[in-house]
Structures are given as structure tokens and as C-alpha cells.
Amino acid sequence: MVDTEIWDFGSGIPTKHLRFLHHKTIGELFICRCDISTCDGLILGTAQPCVALHEGDPTLLRYNSARRNYRLKVRCGHIHISNANSLAELSWSTPQRILVVAMSTKFIEENVASAFSGNIPSLPSRLAIRNDWLLELLLYMRKSLGEPAHCDSACLELLGASLVIKLYEIFGKKRLYQPSIITGGLGSVREKNIKVFIEHHLTENIRLNDLANAVDLSTDYFRKAFKQSFGKSPWRYIRERRISQAKEMLIKHDQSITEIALNLQFSSHSHFTDIFHQITGISPSKFRDHNSR
């Protein structure tokens, strides 16, 4: 019986065939360098949508589908795409090394929806493709793993946004339906209710589905209507509200900056500091010092 593995690049947990050499988290973006052992047969999926760059020696990749079996010669510079919605039966002939950039659904929604007028294309999984645009972005991000000063977290997040937009632009497939036109936003009652909901849940993990359910709308309609009402995506609004809450906590509480960051659902001290500086133009520590005098 063929084994099944789900590779989770967010957690960085190794599997029988996957070992992490480097693992870097920037908000909802995960950059990993991994070694993969030889595999005679595996049903494989990923926990997050991701792009993988083949770095090792040429290998023979076999892909068994319901219709036919494929044999692909994979070389350095080939790129694989996983949409995290499907499993594939694969085998490969030699040990390999890959660079992976994975992203959460939230990261995709925040960056891709606005680029495609709210109608996010579907993304098919692909094996052994070549694309100079994606390759250039991936190589630049790879350099940051070995040379952190080469590109800080804010820079990597921008590169990640560029990567995912380009990915959907080149390989995304338009859905068969067109989204309904949103002309009136959420309306005053829903706007008030969603503001209250967000304020009460700033210290919790807020999902798009939670927001839509709070005002009895579908997630697709809610996302477009929210932007019509507030002029920004739900994630940008929530991020700004969390930074406002952080300002109060920095002044009024004795909690460490790391404690405040984690309490407000930022992934790390550095991620919080980067976002705080982007929005306020000052670091959290300097903000606290200036307001404690």
C-alpha cells in the first residue's frame, strides 16, 4: 500500500521523506529549504498552497494520474505548484533539494483578490514548469535565507505578494461565474456590527468565514462589500486596528513587546515590529519610550 504524506511548510514538521534545512516565517508566508529522500511511491499533498523550486541534480519524476502515467525529467530551475486542494501519486529516482515558498489562504485572499477585482482565479497544481518571472523572485527569496541582511521581513512580504499575484496571473484559470457587482457596501447596520465583532476578537485568530458569518453574508460577497465600505481589505483593517490596540497596550500595560505581539496574533516579535513601523513610522520600543516620559 502506498504511503500518504501531507507536507506542512507552516509548522516545519519533518516527515519520512521531508527534512527542513531552513524555515522562515513572515506573517502568513513561509520560506523553506528542504532535503527530500528517494521515494518509490507516495501519495503527496501540501497543507498550504506553495511553489517549489527544484535545486538538485536531474531526476526522473513519475506521476500517476487516473488517465495515464507521466515520466518527467526534472532539472535544476524547474518549478512545481501545489494548490493544496488535491493529492498526487508520485515517485522520484534520487534524493533532492527544494526551495519552497508557501502561503496561507488568508495571504492569498489579501493580495490576490484586489488584483483580480475580487474574483480569485482557480489555481491548478503543476509539475516541472519553467518561468523566468517566478524563478527570479524565488532566487531572490532564497538568498535571504543565507543572508538575512539581504532582505528584511517587510521586503520578503512584498516579494511574496508579487510572487503570488504573478502565480495567479500566469497560471490561474478564470472561474465560470462572474461575481455580482457590489454597489452599496455592507450598509450602515452591518458596518457597525462588523466593527464591534472585530474589536471584540482582536486577540483571536479571525478568519474571513467568521467575519462573513457575523453579518450573514457569503465570504466572496462580504470581502468585496467590506472593501466598498471601508476602502481596504478586511485583513488590512484588522491589522490597523491591532496596531491601534498595541499602542494602548504599550502605554498602559507592562507586558513585553513580544507578549503584546503574540496576544494580538502576530507571528513573532519581528513581524509585529515590521508591521508597527510600516503603519506608524516608528518602532514599538521607541513608541513606548516616547510615551512614558
Which features does this protein show?
293 residues, Jelly Rolls, Arc Repressor Mutant, subunit A, 2 domains, 5-stranded mixed β-sheet, globular, Tscrpt_reg_AraC-type_HTH, transcription
Characterise this structure:
- This protein has 293 residues and is α+β, with helices and mostly antiparallel strands.
- Strands 2-3-10-5-8-11 form a six-stranded antiparallel sheet. A five-stranded mixed sheet has the order 1-4-9-6-7, with no helix packed on it.
- Helix 8 crosses helix 9.
- Strand 2 and strand 3 form a beta hairpin.
- The chain folds into two domains: 3-171, Jelly Rolls (Sandwich), CATH 2.60.120.10; 188-290, Arc Repressor Mutant, subunit A (Orthogonal Bundle), CATH 1.10.10.60.
- It has helices at residues 105-115, 132-146, 153-171, 188-200, 208-214, 219-230, 234-252, 257-263, 269-280, 284-290; strands at residues 3-7, 18-26, 29-36, 39-46, 50-54, 59-64, 69-74, 79-82, 88-92, 96-103, 126-129.
- Keywords: DNA-binding, Transcription, Transcription regulation.
Based on Cα principal axes, name the global outline.
globular
Kindly report the oligomeric state of this protein.
single chain
| Helix-strand sequence | EEEEEEEEEEHEHHHHHHHHH
Number of strands: 11
Q: How many structurally independent domains? A: 2
Class computed from helices, strands and strand pairing: alpha+beta
Largest sheet: 6 strands, antiparallel
The total count of helices amounts to 10
What CATH calls the topology of the largest domain is Jelly Rolls
Output mean pLDDT: 87
Helix residue percentage: 40-55%
Highest-level CATH class of the largest domain:
Mainly Beta
Nearest-angstrom radius of gyration?
A: 21 Å
CATH superfamily of the largest domain: Jelly Rolls
